[in-house]
Each structure stands twice: as C-alpha cells, then as structure tokens.
Write a structure and sequence with these properties.
6 helices; about 180 residues; single chain; mainly alpha; 2 domains
Length: about 180
C-alpha cells in the first residue's frame, strides 16, 4: 500500500489543481486548496525515497502535477492581477527557458526530461509560496524574488539538458560537478 502513496499524492495535486479554476483567485478557499496541492509536492518525493516506493512513472506523474498546478496558477492569476510589462517579461522568459530545456532534453534522451535538481526544487518552493507572498509583499517584490530563483533554475535546467550525456532526473546541481 505504501508504494502507491507517492503516486496518489501526485495525482491528487494534478486533480486538485483544476479546482482552482472555480475559486476566486487569492481567496481563502483558493489559497487553502493551493496549499494542499503545494504540500503534496515535497511529500510525495519524501515518501517515495524514504520507503523505496519509487515507480516507473512516479517522476513523470510528479512533474505533470507540478506543471498542471503551475499552469493553473498562471491562468487564474494573470488576468486577475495588475501586471507591469517587466513582470510579464520575467515570467515569459522563465517559461521559454523551461520549455526549451524540456524540449532539448526530451529530444536528446528520448523521454520526457524533467530534472529535480536542488535549484529546481528551490524554484518550486519560490513558485509555490508566490501566491502567499503576493498577498504579503505585493506583486513586484514577489516577481523579483521568485523570478530570480526560477530563472536561475531554468538556466541550470537548460545547461543540464544540453550538456549531460545521460538522462538523470535526480541530477543534484551543476555547482556540485567536479571540474
């Protein structure tokens, strides 16, 4: 039974993320469902590693849950918030880098090439706290902070997709490579 828990958590994130379309952006209900979705991300990976419950498609399901939640948040918040041009440019640049890295990695390795590096995990945290930060410190500061972390992770992801010889979804960091 424990072997199924990580995939159930990832699938829950995938399904619950769609409920955000029906809630008022940044409302209490939206933030609560969003927090549940965000909590499943580190939890599924922890359980999979701790109890050796990794499955063949676990990384893919986890990444699909992440992408689904990210897309839902963007689609629900972009029309709701008053964006400045530089803020939209930061988000567009991050999305473009991530899509390019994914496309290159997938083409090179012959499978969906998601990478769970430390920087990518930090970007996940930055992204997941963004709706809460928007309510606390405002949109410009949130985009500056989360955008910097996410852009750094996206550049690393692009570098990994171009440079690595073999696909390793658990690649830790380009900063830990030996010269």
């Amino acid at each position: 039974m424990i072997k199924a828990v990580p995939n159930i958590l990832s699938a829950t994130r995938l399904l619950l993320s769609f409920s955000l379309y029906f809630l008022g952006p940044l409302s209490a209900a939206y933030l609560l469902i969003y927090a549940v979705c965000a909590a499943t991300d580190p939890l599924d990976g922890f359980i999979a590693r701790r109890y050796d419950a990794r499955t063949r498609y676990g990384h893919l399901l986890d990444s699909l849950g992440d992408v689904s939640l990210a897309a839902t948040v963007l689609v629900t918040l972009v029309p709701f918030l008053d964006w400045e041009m530089w803020e939209m440019a930061v988000i567009a640049a991050v999305i473009a880098m991530r899509l390019t890295a994914f496309a290159i990695g997938t083409a090179r390795f012959g499978r969906p090439a998601f990478v769970h590096s430390y920087l990518n995990k930090a970007a996940g945290v930055a992204f997941f706290v963004s709706p809460f930060l928007i309510t606390l410190i405002g949109l410009p500061a949130t985009v500056a902070i989360a955008g910097t972390v996410c852009a750094s992770a996206s550049l690393e992801y692009l570098y990994i997709s171009i440079r690595n010889r073999d696909y390793d979804p658990e690649y830790r960091s380009v900063f830990l490579e030996k010269a």
